[in-house]
Amino acid sequence: MADDDGKASVEFARLRYATYVETLRARMPEAQFDLLMQAIDLYLKAGGGRIRLQMDPEDRELFTAEVKQELLTLLGLIGAMEPGHEDRAEHVVVPLGDGEHVKEAMSLVPADVAKDPEKLRAMRDALDSQRRDQKEVEGIAKASGMPFAEHEPEQPDEGQ
User: Is the per-residue pLDDT at 133 higher than 80?
Assistant: First the structure.
């Protein structure tokens, strides 16, 4: 019986995801929706985890805060399809603000974390530190003649 409950839960999560995607398709401009779905496809092909998006200037313009927020929401709905992680569908996207090296950061977090300014600040500071380290490594690579990414990729953070 528990196995049937698990299958029903996964099926519910899939239907919830599919419904949300169709809602986005209906309300978002086509170019933004297509970019969003490309990012989701990249995430799924990579097997999950952190993704790095390399975008040309046109795509970067389309990748607005709203698209980033919807990307994180979809990642939560995808995560909810994993047995034992159904609660991820209830996670919320929160702005983390600006750090010295990271701007307009946001993350997908459980509702209780969303209400804790100290935890959110710690998350932003960790992202800021990672971005600082990334810039230092790129500077070293550039100085030594090694190839590196010319443009900083966007990094959605699925949170914890």
Answer: yes
